[in-house]
Design brief:
This protein is an alpha/beta fold. The strands form two sheets. Strands 6-5-7-4-8-9-10-11 form an eight-stranded mixed sheet, sandwiched between helices. A four-stranded mixed sheet has the order 1-3-2-12. α8 links the parallel β8 and β9. It is elongated, with a radius of gyration of 21 Å.
Length: 274
């Protein structure tokens, strides 16, 4: 979705420019006061309402997978992989997807962690799985993947947790492991606390992983919804879920309604020194 930026001496003149360019039904996504040297400007980021309608359609993913009834043989579990920057909340999100009824209902979920460096990062995930009677496998190399998949074959869905990735990091071994798994969906786990202008760079870096969805996290840590709306727009990916809070059993929500509603929220103005 195309967001346009407007500047002027006061809000009235800026809003007039917005309406002339985008129409009277334009939506304000973000506003701030910018001081550039001795001059002060009002800066507004706005979007055409028709663009929002198109974005709503793009944002809404296909229906969640419907699993076969208990006792019916399946070809293999449905596989949902989580990828994204370090500290984005992938492991906690994996826990939420495995246990929250809004994710996969009563279907049985298993957890698969890729840890080629044997860093022990996923110990918390293993403890969580043990406490909640979930099947879990930690894989350290590509040749062990099929064994892990066989052990998780009784699950309806497998949630794959991966190490953090960054645009400037070297291509890690786990990427080849993920390609071997061939997930049905790959969600880019992206914290809402990140600057929205970085979203496009991170999405492009993750493109080689076959990213199919966005999954925004840490919604509770941003002061308003403006950043949420702008990140979702920059990522330009369908979104099934968003997360907030630290509780696995409760802090998972449907993404599209909250993201679309965020475009109707005008944040408090911020003073920025250019």
């Amino acid at each position: 979705m195309r967001l346009e930026r407007f500047r002027g001496r006061d809000m009235a003149s800026v809003y007039r420019d917005v309406c002339l360019t985008l129409g009277d039904d334009a939506m304000i996504a973000h506003s701030r006061v910018v001081r550039d040297g001795r001059q002060t400007f009002i800066e507004v980021v706005a979007v055409d309402a028709r663009e929002v309608a198109r974005f709503r359609k793009q944002l809404t993913p296909a229906a969640a997978p419907v699993f076969a009834p208990v006792g019916v043989r399946r070809d293999r579990p449905y596989v949902v992989a989580l990828v994204g920057p370090t500290g984005g909340g992938k492991t906690l999100t994996a826990q939420k997807l495995a246990t929250h009824n809004a994710a996969f209902g009563a279907s049985r979920a298993g957890l698969l962690a890729l840890d080629p460096d044997r860093s022990g990062t996923f110990e918390r995930l293993v403890r969580f799985a043990d406490a909640h009677d979930l099947d879990v496998e930690v894989v350290h190399d590509q040749k062990s993947i099929r064994t892990a998949q066989r052990r998780l074959a009784a699950c309806d869905v497998i949630i794959v947790d991966t190490p953090g990735c960054a645009p400037r990091s070297p291509r890690a071994a786990w990427r080849a492991m993920l390609r071997e798994i061939k997930p049905d969906e790959t969600h880019l786990v992206f914290p809402a606390t990140t600057r929205f202008d970085l979203a496009t760079h991170i999405r492009e870096d993750a493109r080689s992983l076959g990213v199919s969805h966005a999954l925004l996290t840490k919604i509770d840590e941003v002061p308003n919804d403006a950043n949420l709306a702008m990140i979702a727009s920059a990522l330009s990916l369908p979104a099934r879920w968003i997360t907030d809070g630290q509780l696995a059993g409760t802090d998972l929500r449907s993404a599209a309604p909250m993201i679309i509603n965020a475009f109707d929220v005008a944040p408090d103005e911020q003073v920025v020194f250019a």
